[in-house]
Amino acid sequence: MRIFLSFILTAFFALNAQGQLNDYKYIVVPKRFDGFKKENQYQTSTLVKHLFANNGFNTVYEDALPNDLNANRCLGLRVRLDEKSSMFTTKTKLVLEDCNNQDIFISQEGRSREKDFKLSYNEAITEAFNSIAALDYVYVEKSNDDTVTLGFKNDVKNLKGEPGPEKSDNQADRSQSVQQVATEDEQSFKSMEPVASNYEKGARQNPEKGQQIATPEVQSYEDNTPVVSQMQKAPNTTGVADEMSLSSALYAQELENGYQLVDSTPKIVMTLTKTSLSDIYAAKSNTQSGIVFRRDGKWLFEYVAGGETVQKELNIKF
Fold first, then answer.
1. pTM beyond cutoff 0.90
2. 215 Cβ contact list (under 8 Å, min separation 6)
3. Could you say which of 99, 133, 167 is where a domain stops?
């Protein structure tokens, strides 16, 4: 059961990784990886470039960047070799990091017991690359056509010194100004007509000066005697809300393909998507993605954080 759950979790994270990698146009390979003394030592650089290129990635060396990548380094991901080799075993992972040096994808660990360094690195890197080859990478260029064009064909702009069009009976008078609503068809009017003040002239002779309340509709005066504030600084609860929600009772609301879990607020804490297996769901909270499954009568949320597999018990009310 444990092995099967690990397989489901790995497949779930692979789908997320594929979506992330598809946003990047280039893979940048260094000619000398960190930890090596020479360029392309043990043919590591040429091997990595060959593996990526053969699997549909647009792969370049770091000293031969195309113009668009040179202008915008965030179009590409840089390859890094993470090595934890021992005396008898070569162990390495392929890490893809973005222009902000953030790790976007970490491959499975490749191993080799070959004594010859060239053979051992070839075998370990090739094994590590298998998890990248399984992603079926296809570059998807981001669209910039998300802007909305607003039409104002009925608007009239009067130039200084030129007479404006005559107003019809159903138009606002001079005491009204146009307040544009951000839709193509709708405009509303907000009255700008002055409102009478309840300020009394004799109040100025009062030795206890008042404080004017500046609101558009009303003006009044109140005593400005200092008042001791009883406001207390709210405690910092950043990062605690999700932990508290997961530990409290969660109520399942059925969706077309699963459930959404809400707390007593109510606030949506997590969404569960059905899988082909009973009592196993793909799960996504505000901060984590993983799986939710039932074992020994308890519902558990399993996810990966900091390279470690974490399990949290959930109190779900179906």
1. no
2. none
3. 133
